[in-house]
## 1
Amino acid sequence: MTLFSLAWKNMKGSFSNYLIYFVSMVFSMIVYYTFVSLQYSEQIQGSIMLSEFMSFMFMAASAVLLLFVAIFLLYSNSFFTRSRKREIGLYSMLGLRKKSIARMMFYENLLMGVLALVIGIVFGALISKFFSMILIKLMGTSAKVDFVPSIEAIVQTVIVFMLIILFTSFQGARLIYRFKLIELFHAEKKGEQAPLVSPIITFIGVSLLAFSYWLIVRPFPEELTGNYVVGNYGMALIALSVGTHLFFRSATVFLLMLSQKNKSRYYRGTNFIGTSQLLYRIRGNARTFSLIALLSAVTISFFGATYSGYYGNEISAKEDVPFTYTHLSGGQSFDSEIEKLINEDTAHPVQAQLDIPVLVMEGQLSFELDYLTSPIKIIAASTFNQASRALDRDVTVHLSGQQAAVVKPRLTDFRQASFEGQHLTLSESKKNSKLQLVQLVEGSVLPFDYPDFFVIVSDEWFKQLAKQTTTLTYKAYEVEDEKTTEAVSSKLATLIDGDFQVHSSFYTVYKEGKEGSAMNLFVFGFLGLVFLAATGSVIYFKQLTEAGEAKPNYEILRKIGVDNKVIRSMLHKQTRFVFGLPLLVGILHSTVVLYFISNFMSNLIGVNMVVPMLIAMVAFIGIYAGYYVLTVTTYYRIVCR
Amino acid sequence: MKVIVDAKNIKKVYGTKGNVYTAIEGIDLTVQEGQYIGIMGPSGAGKSTLLNILATIDQPTSGDVVIDGTSIVHMNEEQLSVFRREKLGFIFQDYNLLDTLTVRENILLPLALAKTKIKELERRVEEVADIFGISPILDKYPYQISGGQKQRTATSRALVAKPSLILADEPTGALDSKSATDLLESLKGLSEHNRATILMVTHDAFAASYCQKVVFIKDGKLFTELVKGKLPRKEFFNKILDVLSVLGGGASDVI
């Protein structure tokens, strides 16, 4: 019998043992291939406006994915080889030379890897079509997806995974050299010692967590620098990771030990059996727990944040471009041509049409404001009120004489208090042109234009000022169902040559925003799904391996007189702990992170994140619950067969 | 005297049509309270099958088994679990201790399952640990103690709930002769002083010589039985060896 055939028989003979490892390999490959093939898909790239941004996003994400997949594969590989130490020891006992064993391990892993790669790519090709449909649906484009496997994607996937497979194969081959025969035989014999409960470590862990939370939620400093961002959040990340690990390492032991205190409850029924089993493996579990808690936190946070972006896109587009169409007046004939074009679109009847005259002047504020305030754009109070009403807003201003109001510049966080009682002196004005600032109002009426500094003055003053400088007149239209005004928007774009200030339509901004945020949502959603599936699988694999080891224990229990119903409820309790604790900590972490992101986002774009965040969490918990049920069911089947 | 085990005409057939193997062919067995009975026979004679049936882990194909006044043949899984918990104590060759529990916890397992009060539970554990001399190691884990100590722990667990019947499957199989002798002496003492009823399957004539009665099985049927009576243990041992040599197929089994 050649070595190759021995390796092959090995695999065939105990395929169920290999299945877990094999499935995780196939899973990683499917995920990676799917993602890369989306990256290379010309149909998707051709169908969107932001393809450069998209390639960058995909590239960054595929790097993260690659790293993650590699770690996941190495993890499952070490898991797999550990369970086979005894078998390898047996070969050695039977007189097989170390070199032969090493070669056998190498071939075996290689064979499995190649097989998994083929299956992974075939399934990946099927699944990538499904995912491209989701992506296209999210972006709201109407591209057709053909079923053409991408050669570049296949080549990239094969190269990447062959490297990983070769590495793990060498690792497997080295196994026999790394351990003494005796160690191979006693691989899983020794019980892990429960780590000592140290109140100091628990305290350090909890304080580190509290410290990192504080770093995350504390308000921004006056001046937001890159150094601050990297320093503050980098430190928060480190404190969070270390704190989480210490927390799981000692606090879980502490919690479990606490449950032992009440002896009459602890020694009643099967409570103490489950608890001792958890304590027995706590050290290994602590590592997995922290990994899972952190990954869950990352997944929920990113997904919640990006989903908010997607969810809030319409609101933020509406803020950027308040009216459906806005353009700078270009003379009577030009304006009426555009008016005709807009009126011809009967599917979108015009709800409001108005002129917004704007004066552009230089001026000086009576105080230091951390924002560029020159040039200043001036609007009359009646125009502002009219536009506000046309947009269905209830913000109006009432100004008289030299009173003026500032429209809150978009993407800023200024408060009324900074402006109230201050003055603005217009420099080009001949007369005494000291304006009295009385109010800060929200709700710009013209498209975003940096510096976004609009000042509303009373009608009489506007008339006076208008004499001193030229008036720019904007034509604004608000139409019904503005989210579907693609046809007119693109016609306008060809008709009017100019940048954002000259002409802008809501649709273009809305669409770009939607594509960008859909891309974010998709990429993070995809990564999140992978993280989720991987963390779920890690717990699942871990529990199944444990089930195999614990099987004799449950047999003993049954012989002693514990019926299957009790065993099932024991398993439920144990699994609930194993799944619930990291999830709980993960959710706590992500709540803090999302609180921060939500503050940040709602300042910037005025998006309420509660709904999208809840959706992200519920989705996460839902999928996790699926894994929980699967784990309990399989565990039960293993120990009660 | 009270009858603890009353098995009538038990049969056990394995396999399906065409490929049938009869493990037990109509065995009757009666055990009275306080008796210490050994079951011997060559490999494949049906000893373990018989024990498994009495332990309610396996069901007979036909026949009736009454233990402590209750027929176990028609019980469902849940009733059997309760029955095992309350009436039976097990000692196995490979100890069957839970490696995640301390010695103390392993012993109190049956009591905890029966939801005994904590005071009573602790008292009983101390008491039984005292009998078997394992009080000093109560807080150790199974992987920290020797084989003999493990078996004494397992025996303590079997006894702690004061079961009606103790079933032992090759309890000395994995022990050295000193540990084996200690264990056998303890079991003998239990049956003599505490009126514990013990049924022990063994290959070992030395172990069997501690019993009051030894039942021999061959090819699924009762072959013969020996009663110790007033005989010294040495002579009883020789008589057992005689029977075993007649029984055949087991010369190697004897040692």
## 2
Amino acid sequence: MSQFSDYAWMILDGTWVTVKITVVASVVAVIVALLTGVARTSKFFWIRLGPTLFVELFRGTSCYVQLFWAFFALPFIGISLTPFVASVLVLGANVGSYGSEVVRGAIAGVPRGQTEASVALNFTKLQRFRHVVFPQALVAMLPPAGNLFIDLLKLTPLTSLITMSDLTYNAMAVRQQTGSTFIALATILVGYFLMSSAIAWAIGRIERRASRGLETGPRAA
Amino acid sequence: MIWDWDFALRIIPDILRGLGTTVIATFFGSLLALAVGLVIALANRSDVTAVRRSSRGFAEFIRRTPLLVQLYFIYFVLPQAGIVLPPLLCGVIALGLHTGAYLSEVYRAGIDGVPRGQWEAARALNYQQGQTWLKIILPQAIPPMIPAIGNYIILMFKDSALLSIIAVPELMSMSRNIGNDSYRYLEPLTIAAILYLLLSGIAVLLLRIIESRSGMARLTG
């Protein structure tokens, strides 16, 4: 019985590591998505160039390849990252690159009239973006962003391959010690499903909240 | 110098052999995904509530759990049930199931996108159900699906790198082995990343061409 509680602790411990990676990498992803997404709506080629290359680089290969590259190849150019730092940077940059497209699309999707109206009202460029364009774009970003956060959670098992003791890593350790492969893997499948569902539920709530103000706006008409 | 050109050129043939396996896995994975997606999409439209619920639940579960854990499950649990499959087949099944769960949504959107009037017109013209699907619904539903299906197949191509974990001798696996043998990871991992980048880039371009063609076929046909 005490052994069972040991294994339960390993699973809980791994869950905590997975949650930590997911949360920190999500913050990185949001920063990457916003910076590159907004930069890519610029009318200046030189501002768009860097972020576009960055995004295409991260979308052109899989997260797994990037993670291995960051962990095993980067040290050859003199940059050694701890597994945790490599994990959150790569996962964040990878998902953020997909998010970049969401941000860019949402900003481009705000009707032109909104920009024109705020020009007519003598808003400065920054005011126009902060008070008119961005709040409306944000509502359009939320549903795809929710899917991306779930995608990010689903990428975290890859970090077990660069020695992070996350949920998957610990479950595989339990599997090796107990030999009960089915129970170990079924447990974490359900665990990941519950965590994904929690993210979906949370984003759904935020979505309803964020669109509240718009119900009386032009969208309701 | 950090980058060793002699070494890089020497390992390219081995890495390219891995690429062949990657392409095979992606090809059969795509075929399976197209079939699985269709079955799920049709089951989701079933008149029997139990069928509808279980197929929706299944697809949701697959979409909300990580591919790596699904791969482990197929690779480690199936043999315990007496089903021993070669690693490549396990990989193809995992890729096909995972992508198929996403494709079912693409099929659904495509079929729902055909206007109601088309179904009604087919009934008014006394078409049988098979004829209605083959001659009226699918020809209109498929062209808009092509970009989305193509994107998922490109994602699968990149995700197939995961198969290296269950010892399928594909692109990533070959590069990792070279790294393990030579203690030089920079060249093999970078070459692998460039190959993924290059091929997915070409695939995206091809997809855009097909997309514009099928769009034209729809307008004139």
## 3
Amino acid sequence: MLTNGSTTYGSIAISLHWLMAILIFSMFALGLWMVDLNYYHPWYHDAAELHKSMGILLFLLLLFRFTWRFRNPIPKPLGKAWENSLASLVHRSHYLLLFAIAITGYFIPTANGVGIDLFNLITIPATLSFSKTEVDLIGELHQAIAWSIVILALLHAGAAMKHHFIDKDATLIRMLGCQCSQKSKQQGD
Amino acid sequence: MKIKTILAAGLLSFGLSLPAQAVENYNFDIKGQHAFIQFKIKHLGYSWLIGNFNTFDGSFTYDAENPAFNSVNTTIDLASIDSNHSERDKHLRSGDFFDVANYPTATFKSTKFQSSGDGKGIMTGELTLHGVTQTITLDVQEIGGGKDPWGGFRRGFEGSTTLHLSDYKMVKGNMLGAPAENVEIFLSIEGIRQ
């Protein structure tokens, strides 16, 4: 099934989830790595260009995923009430932070009117311009948001593990695309 | 009251005992911006990268009779660095280079002036940048001076010096490599007599 059911995630949602998870962690690593590269490193410029292009792609994926989320049922969460509201808070924060990181990331290189070259194919134009102090602040925000996203993702992964190994429910395996129902517990991976 | 009067009289007579030609005080023409602080540094050793500090202020004194009394003071807002590339400027403002959050300004205070005649001379002073104070010398040359068309009196100089990037202990100062060790500074300063 491409679409979500009342208790299952569809293949689109699952693919988006894992693809974005991989991209987000790669972007985090790339971001940390690129700002510490030596000027004479062969990747000094390309790393930043890749980060910008990937950022645009991730933003497009995010828009699609966000739309998809509202056009699909959200599978019923399997935890206790407090767990479900906490999970929902983490999910919503993740969406919010992902939008925020994309927007701040876009404004850093474009603050002075220079667009972003998307894989050297097309140029995403600059829009708003910002003062130096504002750009520096946006840069700090971008970094803080990146850390928040990764820390939340680790919490989220920890919770998935807890559901899988302690509660022994289908929370993790249904996100791994297992077609089986909730009864077939603990046969993912 | 009395003490003040004596002090005032003392200061006055001291002032009068100075050479007849009074020291002229000038403020940088910041309002009209006839003052520039420019740097150039080699990129990879293949070309010059040129930039400006757009925001600074300062003053100088000029004494035609006693050039040794000539002095200059300036404060530069380092966040105003402008190399015509916003991402590079952002990087230069960051903790990797100028660290403007912790060291927002650089100052230069002259300590000595040696005239070599012909409107030229060497200005020695203390440059404080990135928390490091270095004694540097500026080659100074007077460009001209006189009445301006709007009722004021102006005098202008150019100055140049070479700074060494490694002196200022910037976190990533050495990342730019040996070609970028020397930074050429060029100043063009017009002052309005006060």
## 4
Amino acid sequence: MNIIEIRDLHFHYVEQEQVLEDINLTIEKGEWVSVLGHNGSGKSTLSQLIIGLLKADQGEIIVDGLTLNEDTVYDIRKKIGIVFQNPDNQFVGVTVEDDIAFGMENLCFPREEIIRRIDEYSKRVRMNEYLKKEPHNLSGGQKQRVAIAGILAMNTDIIIFDEATSMLDPKGRDEILDYIKEINAQGVTVITITHDMKEAIHSDKIVILKEGKILKVGTPKEVLNDKATLNASNLELLLPLKLMYQLEESKIDNPDLKDYLWQLSLNR
Amino acid sequence: MNNIIIGQYVPGDSFLYKMDPRSKIVALILLMVSTFILQNVFHILVMLSLVLILLWAGGIPIGRIIRGLRPIMILLTFTFTFQILFVETGSLLYTLPLTISVYNLLIAIALVVLYVLTRKRVRFRLFYFLAYVAGILALFNLFAPGDVLTSPVINVYSDGVRGAFYIMIRLVIIVTLSTILTLTTKPTDLTLGLEQLLKPLSLIKISAEEIALIISIALRYIPTLLDEANKIMLAQASRGVDFTEGKLKDKIMQIISLLVPMFIISFKRSDELANAMEARNFVPGQYRTRLHVLSWQWIDTVVVITSTLFIAGSIVVVILT
Amino acid sequence: MAIKFEQVSYDYVGVDQTRYRAISNITLDIAETGEFITLIGETGSGKSTLVQHMNALMRPTEGEVTVYGVKIYKDVKKKNKNVKLNPLRQKVGLVFQFPEYQLFEETVERDIMFGPKNFGVSDADAKVRARQALQAVGLDASYLERSPFNLSGGEKKRVSIAGILAMEPDILVLDEPTSGLDPKGREALLKLFTEIHRNLNKTVIIITHDMNTVYEYASRVLVMNKSELVFDGTPDELFLTGDFGSWNLETPDMIDLTRKLETKLGVTFHRLPKTVEDLHAMVLEVLS
């Protein structure tokens, strides 16, 4: 079943050139889709369109059967949570528990339920000992974990990670990536927006964006097989894949080695 | 920059901490008004001792209060001097004739210079200051060799002393009361209390909830902004911005070089924060449940009743006397 | 030596007088030319505090930093009235992580001119320097009249670097210059730093979390761990013999792949490759 359908989507900012052009995309329930593109490819604009923070020039977005428009936007937002890039600019609460509660307060959850869920989800992201802490005493990775707890607590069907790891150090990045895997394994539809091939390779489906257009949609395997598209995409190739391409060019016929490099590229 | 304390809240567990912020705010306002209603020296002293008892009962260290008074010390000294020197009603209490001559003026100037040079090395600066003032007055009064330049007279009147005394005690009471409130109430609770008390404003289409949200977001971002301001200063210092030297024109440019990045970053921040809030289903003006609720206990009722009685008593006392 | 640290420590003091030692007992020498240094370590290990001592933004709590002959220590301003710290910031150019911290002028040109003019360069000269600096960071002259706020993240970063380069510092220090950039943008910037290092013969110091950068570009690595300088040497020494696992550093992709291939092919390579071409050649050698 398709949980998100995007049809013929066009968007541009006032007095600027086209940011997104002719986007067609379907995302199935429970799937993990990564939208992969360089800076300025329009990938973050896409996430803001999906939850109605921006209004498309043309085209349709259907989330869980609801077509996005002024009447449905609040219902659609209840189905989608977003973890944004900058840890500091999405921390609304004065303390950790206030921030986790913020979304639930807006959704008018009963107070007892809010308290129960703060406990449950702060434990899930191992922030339960920091509930009374203020954000300036937390690291970037910890703030992102709080954001994740706040969104998990709202129990949305879909979670978008909009470059949620790009301002973190390697340790913070790996932690968040582990949570993404875990969340997806529990049946939540996940969309990660990233410029990091290493991150995208873990997902079920990769969408490559370049200058506002979809260049390719496919499984990681299909994407890595499409050498022409990868070269055109301006993305950084993974090292094993680079080596494999070079070996191919030198006409080395070693299927075993090739297969090994292939598996390494897919991070298996 | 990890140690910025939001507000002045200091954790503790006396009854003041267990009270509802609403009752604390209401009591604060009632007691402040009483302070201004009372006109008799004796009554104001009673009020002051009550405040001191409150401090003692609430287990609040007096040092904290003195620290809270420090910023208004200059104001206090000025109003005190002003009242003493320029109020000329009531009965004449004391006359201090001064004789200013060339020699004692020179000595006085030397003393002032000595004071300016040494004041930073002294622990009790206020006493040090007062000692110098007294010293100079004594000098003019007692020791005047040489040609006399002028001989002014300082007349102290009873109304001046009373006025100075009133203003001082009132200010001390008010600052102490509000320090008690901010010391024992978390900023979040304070905001929540304020929100509840401002609810009636919805009658004139002002949303107390939105005001409270604005305050709490401001509180949350103060440390972040301070940290950022510091970093911007360091970044511009790396480009040669140096406030200790340079012409006025350069200095204006240097201040602009700090302000513009602050504004631009803050605008971007508020834009992103607004998006993040909307994405988490925030709709301005719509009802929200709240994690923090206030609980009104018997002690709150007692405190509010007591302070109401107090203000009523003050009014009665003033009318009767 | 251009910069010399002698047993330098720095304590942050909170409002409640609690102390936090950000860097502890650092001894270090940095030459004026010829070095490409990467400074690595976990978040909060003291990297930024360390580099802010290099241009006298911070003064040590203990110990002494000597920058171009000027000794900097605690209360140096009080004890030595003649000391001028501001000129050191022209000698050691420090670029902060976020270009938003420094960009403020109406045009790119005027923003780049701001630094040189603060150090007494005339308007005309500053203009010339702005053009040169912009070219050095790989942006053409059409950017001069643009507003620095309407640029992409990568372009802003370049303009902020040009703003420091135009001061003509002898040493260039960059705090996480590639964070938040996509791989292409990162690579382009690193190429730029290599060029500045080679062509202008300046020592370049980069704070980074990316071990691939360290391995591929650095001539020297400094590792900070829990406020202490725990390693000072070449990248090869670090990744071959250093205790980098216990400092929570990742293995560079190149070394990781080389090791895996050694196991897979059952061979031992006698050296470590720096580029994929290198590795390719080594594999070809083994296979044939």
